[in-house]
Amino acid sequence: MPAQKTTASDEYARIYTMLSGLTANMSVVALAGKQRIQNFEAAAKNDPLMVELVNELRDRFAAVQGAEAYLEMSQAYEAFAEANFAYEMLQRGVALERTPGTGREGEKRPDFRHRQTGKIHFEVKALEIAEPLSRNKAIAHDALEQAAELDHRARKPGVHVGETVMSGFKPGTTASQRVDLVIERLNSALKRDQLRYGPTILVVDLGRLPSPSFGPSALLPAFFHAGPPAESSVSGELWHIALGRIGERMLRLPEFDGASNLDGHLTRQGVLHDYPELCGVTFVYPAWSNPSALLTIWNPVPDQTNLVNKLALKEHEVGDIVAKYSNGWNDTSNEHGWNYRICR
């Protein structure tokens, strides 16, 4: 009798056990836990898209057969990012389906479309950590050293803990450098023909490249930070990823009151300048025990000149969809950022 096929959550648990106490990987850590995968599996009982995405996620997990399978771990995270976004949208009453023809030889189309109307699409990009080849090995090596040190100390009486610092960015990366890196990664990953198939919202999963947690305030050009460690004006990194200009000065959160908040100047322009046909950019921050945060900058008047399929929804209809699924949103004119102008 053939062995029963494992589930996606079974395979995730296997990977986690394989790495636990031995090494670490940013893609695996960012997956947000076994419970999250089980939530996907529960949703798949009633949603055909989730069935497809969970099966793909299971297969990606099954391909991870060693502690140094960095490429396979990265591909597993990309499958997770698609499943996670589809799941979050489903929970918010915005069901998706595969764009017809996606994956066909020679076809370049966005990942999903809005199931209720079929008239707006979503393309998901899960950005890899900075310098993945070297930093995956460095993170794994640090985790191994921590495990060895903890094992040595555990032989003595007392309670002992160890911690591996996990960050998708290199230590010391500044606000302007983070924005430049994300834009660079997006420009490398985006395919213009794919985005021109029809009206599309770009979905950027930042689980492996998280910026400081300023919530929806990061959707503003600048906001006032009113709590510790300092009161200061700070640039919204998500706004600048979407709409920043070359040479623009970034403002960072100071380490303490009275310290300088001046950061560097941007060397790249935001993706909505390079891809004005986009209807917006939604940034996804997965969370372990809570729903992911979906933060959106909406482009109410996209350039439709080169779209194969023109936007058939009215401006307010697109805005209603964005408002329905987003935890916070602004538009390209900064007319909806008022509620987020102060971050505490």
Describe the structure.
This protein is α/β, with parallel strands linked by helices. It folds into 2 domains: 7-91 and 131-167, no CATH class; 175-343, no CATH class. Helices cover 37% and strands 15% of the residues. It is built from 11 helices and 12 strands. The chain has helices spanning 8-19, 26-29, 34-43, 48-62, 70-91, 132-154, 175-189, 192-195, 237-243, 271-274, 315-325; strands spanning 96-98, 112-114, 121-126, 200-205, 222-225, 232-235, 249-251, 262-265, 280-285, 293-298, 328-331, 342-343. The strands form 3 sheets. Strands 1-2-3-4-9-10-11 form a 7-stranded mixed β-sheet, sandwiched between helices. α11 links the parallel β10 (293-298) and β11. α1 packs antiparallel against α3, α1 packs parallel to α4 and α4 runs antiparallel to α5 (70-91). The chain is globular, with a radius of gyration of 21 Å.
